[in-house]
Specification:
Two copies of one chain form a homodimer. By secondary structure, chain A is an alpha/beta fold. Chain A has helices spanning 19-32, 55-66, 83-90, 96-99, 110-118, 138-151, 172-176, 201-211, 215-218, 242-253, and strands spanning 6-11, 36-40, 73-76, 102-105, 124-126, 167-171, 191-197, 222-229, 257-260, 272-273. Helix content of chain A is 33%, strand content 17%. In chain A, strands 2-1-3-4-5-10 form a six-stranded mixed beta sheet, sandwiched between helices. Chain A has a four-stranded parallel beta sheet with strand order 6-7-8-9. In chain A, helix 2 (55-66) packs across helix 3 (83-90) and helix 8 runs parallel beside helix 10 (242-253).
Chain lengths: 282, 282
């Protein structure tokens, strides 16, 4: 009802969130988005080797937020690897309630975003995570996420979206680890936006070699390339830029090259709603 | 006929071979294997960014050796990434002559070894490459490869092979980049041996998360783990050893854990003939 707060549950399917970052996030949201109530699930602070708690704890937290009608949205605390382990523990147990809410994350989150989209969830989006507040100028990224999560503000969106063509966005390496599994959505007819961070160029080429050979990706409407940042040294010099690499694989596989996308592991990372925008009424 | 030399053609589908390494290799083979004639294709010395020449040149060299009846075997100069780009240029153009010869390589070679095995080539094997001679004690690895290439010497084989169950061997990360593509063989009923080098543990876990979700891998007879060497630091400490990681994924996916395998990025790397050993008469 009018005046009700938008309730956003934050979980960490991958790496853990630091307590001081959580405090900073809550303070920023309270000041900048008074209509939003952030609930950071205590699972975010668990620690279990690489992960924010054991697989079962991360899956339980995800389900508690996703299946609880009091939450309007589920927001990723951060990425970092772990969502792929949680996806098969989560996806079969999502209720009709879960299908009504909005899911936002990127990078490692792609494992679950892919599975949700494949399962027909209508409100799945690629965009900043809570921990992006720690980046230089990161409040802009978090404000963008909160403006989308709370009001689906069109000013937050990747500017090249078309109402005529559905879109998805993925971290390239994560998408390569989804190809050939039950998480992989049918990307036929979709614009596929890709971004990458902290990889050697030979690995970027190898990931594209892989996804461009996947039948579902070959049927996409075209590829747009977001930022490829913090590229690690290649031995020897690879001999091509990220854009040249993507254009090579578009040529080899008959996929249309559609130019740049305004996404990446940075504070400019714009929102990409999966599917066709505008979304149906939720 | 008796007295004829065994002719082995060496090509480089990935990175280039250094001329001094080639000279050392030829000298060693002439002394230790007088019945072998090594022919190092000049393509091995080409340089094109990351690769030993452009894709077309690497594919042409591969086809020249594979389709030439004067060669008994095709041996990988080295790995390093590039075979996946060449595979679709090579596989449709292999003749019946190509089907009669022996193919030996590992690591990046797995892209083409997979495609050859899937296409029904009977003599495909995972084992040392020519450039392993540069490792400390590397002459032992090259001698093992040459003893297998020239005489199929059973002393060179991975000791756990069983006549009852077919086997394959792959670099884990390379296999992850084959899943979901036309190169992926059906591994149902096969013992799958895996090895890895120079990766963080989270990447190793992520590759296993990927392959264990692939239907074809789930049907395998079990996994054996070779050496996982030069493990890069994980931030934070991952919390499990490579064997524990593999056993976790075997448990999750219902794959049998079959213990260690004597393969790896090192001079001890034993030969794994794809399929059922002994092979049919060639």
């Amino acid at each position: 009802m009018p005046g009700d707060k938008i309730r956003i549950g934050i979980v960490a399917p991958g790496k853990r969130l630091e307590e001081d970052v959580a405090r900073r996030l809550v303070a920023f949201a309270a000041q900048a988005f008074p209509n939003v109530e952030l609930q950071i699930h205590p699972q975010c602070f668990l620690s279990h080797g690489h992960f924010a708690g054991p697989d079962e704890a991360r899956a339980k937290a995800f389900l508690e937020v996703a299946n609880d009608p009091r939450f309007d949205a589920l927001w990723w605390a951060r990425g970092g690897y772990g969502a792929g382990r949680v996806a098969p523990l989560v996806l079969p147990h999502l209720s009709d309630v879960a299908k009504k809410k909005l899911y936002l994350g990127y990078s490692d989150a792609g494992f679950i975003l892919a599975g949700l989209y494949r399962a027909g969830f209508p409100f799945v989006a690629h965009g900043p995570v809570a921990r992006d507040i720690t980046r230089d100028g990161g409040e802009a990224a978090v404000a963008r996420a909160l403006a989308f999560l709370s009001a689906r503000d069109p000013a937050t969106l990747e500017p090249g979206l078309s109402a005529a063509v559905p879109a998805v966005a993925f971290n390239l390496c994560v998408l390569s680890h989804i190809v050939g599994t039950d998480l992989m959505p049918d990307l036929s007819g979709h614009v596929l936006m890709l971004e990458e961070v902290s990889e050697e160029l030979y690995r970027i080429d190898r990931s594209l070699c892989h996804i461009a050979a996947a039948p579902s990706v070959r049927g996409c409407a075209g590829i747009r390339l977001g930022r490829v940042s913090d590229i690690l040294p290649n031995d020897p010099d690879f001999g091509a830029t990220p854009e040249e690499i993507v254009r090579h694989w578009c040529g080899v596989s008959g996929i249309a090259w559609l130019g740049a996308a305004d996404i990446g592991h940075d504070v400019e990372n714009r929102i990409v709603p999966f599917g066709r925008w505008p979304w149906p009424k939720g």
